[in-house]
Amino acid sequence: MRMFEVLIFGLFLSLLSLNSAYAVEPALSGLTPVSRVNAPIIQQYIGRVEAVNKATMKAQTSGRLAQIYFDVDDIVEQGEVIARLNNGPQKADLDLANAGLEEATAEYERNQADYDRYNKLYQQKLIAVTVLDQSRAALKASKARLDSAHARIKRAKENYEYTIIRAPYSGIVKQRHVEVGESVNPGSPIVSGISLNEIRVVVDIPQKVVSSVRARKQAKIFLVDGTEIDSSALTIFPFANDVSHTFTVRVDIPLSENKSTEAALYPGMLVSTGFVIGEQSLLVIPEAALTHRGEINAVYVKTDNNQITMRQVRPGRRFEGDHLVILAGLSEGEKVFLDPLSATAALKHQVPYTKQESAHE
Asked: Residue 187 is inside which H or E element, if any?
């Protein structure tokens, strides 16, 4: 019986020793080296969002404004009627032109039938050539009157359409310049609008970076929700502002990004815009490896003798989504733990590793 108790106690000590020797093993399985990468140097400035398409619809004929169908901030689809002028005279001219076209068409068809009949009789030598010539001349004259009627109706339709103000593209009404009942002349503004389908950012940059920006033509637009939009479609003005001595840059937002960011970007907003002006070497680690202890930022590092140590670091900006730039506290090639919680638990039960255990790992 005593021998059995000794064996049980020995087995318990063996299990306890095994657990202690591999207490940090779960944490050691989630290691990643501190790496160095080449990253662009980005200089940020404040830019203004504006619509690419913006226009003021103006009257093309004189008249009294009869109706405005949209108000400020209303959404208008392309081709919809925005406003209409009193078009009584234009409608009357169009009706007269239509009547004239019908009359000219009937006359032409009658003369064409006469000519065809006289031509057959002439082929049968039943009429003189002078009769055929007279019919041909009448047909030619009626064709000219028909062409003139088509021209009149085209002009009448244009004059009638001038009284109807249509949206040149889908957008939002931004301003109304006249009210119903007011008289307008050709060139009088009716409404102003903008389109949200195409937007861009306009930024003023100092002259010291304009050469670098012009050489690289790479920009990033930073939204408040953390989204970053890349663009290489830059238009850099070839002259500086006389007062501020800055250069204006237009950054076009790709159409594919317009759809996904239409809820976040509107004309008139201010956004942070970065321009690539060079390259730099950075130390980066996965963001998951960073832990916070009060106001201290730290990571768990595996030392050369297979120990775990907590090291305070100074993190920088986020890099490529799930990585962080480390400004101080780490060196290239050091290994950090991806799971700070497991590393904390292992650190509390940490035991020194023997050479045999290190080789086993």
From this structure: none
280 Cβ contact list (under 8 Å, min separation 6): 38, 39, 40, 41
| Pair of tokens at residue 65 | 């404004």
Give pLDDT tens digits along the chain (361 positions). Answer: 444 443 443 443 343 333 333 333 443 458 888 888 888 888 999 999 999 988 899 999 999 999 999 999 899 999 999 999 999 889 999 999 999 999 999 999 999 999 999 999 989 888 888 988 999 999 999 999 999 999 999 999 999 999 999 998 888 999 999 999 999 999 999 999 998 888 999 999 999 999 999 999 999 998 888 788 889 999 999 999 999 999 999 999 887 655 555 457 888 899 999 999 988 888 888 888 888 888 888 888 888 877 788 888 888 877 777 888 888 888 888 888 887 888 787 777 775 544 434 333 4
Residues 344, 300 contacting (CB under 8 angstroms): yes
Residue 120, SS3?
Answer: helix
Place of tokens 């050691």: 28
DSSP category for residue 163: T
Residues contacting residue 248 through CB under 8 Å, at least 6 positions apart: 202, 203, 204, 236, 237, 241
List, in sequence order, every residue forming a beta bridge with 251; answer none if it has no partner: 201, 234
Q: Which residue bears the tokens 């970065």?
A: 274
Let me know if 360 is exposed, middle or buried by CB neighbors in 10 A (0-12, 13-18, 19+): exposed
Structure tokens at 139: 């047909």
Contacts of 265 (CB under 8 A, 6+ apart): 49, 199, 223, 253, 271
Crossing angle between the packed helical segments 129-161 and 88-123, to the nearest 10 degrees:
160
* Cβ-contact 194, 76 below 8 angstroms: no
Q: Decide: 284 and 249 in contact? Cβ < 8 Å.
A: no
| Contact criterion met (CB below 8 Å) for 233 and 252 | yes
